[in-house]
Amino acid sequence: MDEFWVFGYGSLMWNPGFVFEERLGARAFGYRRSLCIRSFVHRGTPERPGLVLGLDRGGSCRGAAFKVNADDREEVLDYLRKRELVTNVYLERHLRLELEDGREVRAIGYVVDRSHPQYAGALDIAEAARIVGMSEGQSGPNEAYVVNTVAHLKEMGIRDAWLEGVAARVAAMTAQAVA
């Protein structure tokens, strides 16, 4: 049976929630990490939606690839589908990855469905920061989600200039509001 790999680009990288045999840095091609999904529950409300990460078309994205034992394939897929497909804003896809050791593999990944009502589209840093700075949901402030994501990415040696720009802009807005 073929190897089974899973690609993570957000919280899945540091909180996969499933057993795996191997974890390597990886790059997915044709997609980029983006705050492009409106969150109505965890990081916002229907009246004031927040933003969470999606894998959107264009560019490439550094993340983590997890090799899963073939015996655990169905259990892991079931877990991932319950985690990622709650509102169907994500589409399950087979992505081409280049692993940090140079190998190329195919992996399951979850990309945004651009036709879904939760798709926010491409936002500039200022607009994304404005939304993030004023949103809060059941899992807490949207700002905390973005700051935590940026911190985890940096710990893993992954720089995301756009997301870091959003976090910096939100911090500046917060500091200005306090002053």
What does this 3D model show about the protein?
The chain has 179 residues and is of the alpha+beta class. It has one domain: Hypothetical upf0131 protein ytfp, CATH 3.10.490.10. It is 32% helix and 36% strand. The strands form two sheets. A five-stranded antiparallel sheet has the order 1-3-2-4-5. The protein has a two-stranded antiparallel sheet with strand order 6-7. A hairpin with a 2-residue loop joins strand 6 and strand 7 (140-141). Helix 3 (125-133) packs across helix 5 and helix 4 packs across helix 5 (161-178). The chain starts with a strand and ends with a helix.
Task: Summarize the structure in short.
With 179 residues, this protein is of the alpha+beta class. It has helices spanning 11-14, 73-84, 125-133, 142-155, 161-178, and strands spanning 4-8, 22-39, 50-68, 90-99, 104-112, 136-137, 140-141. It is globular and about 55 Å long.
Query: Which structural class do you get from the secondary structure elements?
Result: alpha+beta
Give the name of the CATH superfamily: Gamma-glutamyl cyclotransferase-like
- Computed CA radius of gyration, to the nearest angstrom: 16 Å
Number of strands: 7
Helix content: 25-40%
CATH architecture: Roll
Strand order of the largest sheet: 1-3-2-4-5
Q: Give the tally of structural domains.
A: 1
Overall pLDDT score = 95
Spatial shape:
globular
Could you please say which CATH topology applies here? Hypothetical upf0131 protein ytfp
Q: Low-confidence segments, ≥5 residues, pLDDT <50?
A: none
The CATH class designation is Alpha Beta
Largest sheet: 5 strands, antiparallel
Q: For the terminal residues, how far apart are their CA atoms?
A: 60 Å
The helix count comes to 5
H/E series? EHEEHEEHEEHH
Beta-strand residue percentage: 35-45%
